[in-house]
Amino acid sequence: MSIIILDEQQTEASPNSMSRQNIQNALRARQVTPGRHFHALASRLLSLRSDSNEHKTIGITSCSHGEGTSTVASNLAVAINNAISGEVLLVDCVEPRQTLSKKTINPGWIDLVFRDADLPDVVRPTDVPRLNVIGSGLPLERGAGTYGREQLLNVVQLLKERFEFVFFDLPCGDEMTGCIPIASVLDGVLLNVKAGKISSLKAGRLQRELQVHNANVLGVVLNQTHSYVPGFLKSLIGMESTSQ
Prior knowledge:
Rossmann fold, 17% strand, 37% helix, alpha/beta
């Protein structure tokens, strides 16, 4: 594993403070323009593949809210899309709030997993050629469902057969969310860390939790920093950092 540094200028130029829905709207309007660090990260992911069937499904998660995970996921999806000729998909896996009006939400991830929605009914094209999104979908009734492994494996396999790359914008791992069950069925997971926000204890706990559940942690994305890498991150992954 390694650390990818996304410097402060890079992440400030991206829609870090935007909601997931606004990021999806920005993708549709071609307003997400990844910089060199995201292209470097995309190149690293591509270098992991010995054939086109490897490392097709990548999750991005974090220890807590507000670390720019949706920004990293969306920019990485665009960067990969620029580098390959196949179809790319970005999936919002964060369950929508119960308070949202069902009249304003399109079917999405929740519907695909829990309501047996058809794939064409949940995939939305963007204005970026060959880049598609699946939104979070319609909220479940409280306590109505938990992720089953076979259920997730079937859905992920369906997406792998349809798209060359699938990026999963995962819930953060500091709460009772679907982060761990989803991460455990993907080809790889990136742990997104916002510089100066997360303690070594929290980052280490999440990494161990992912690995205990057989998630393949590919590396750490350190965002909103110029070059400094905290020592705990170096020890967390057992090697020196590399900046692109």
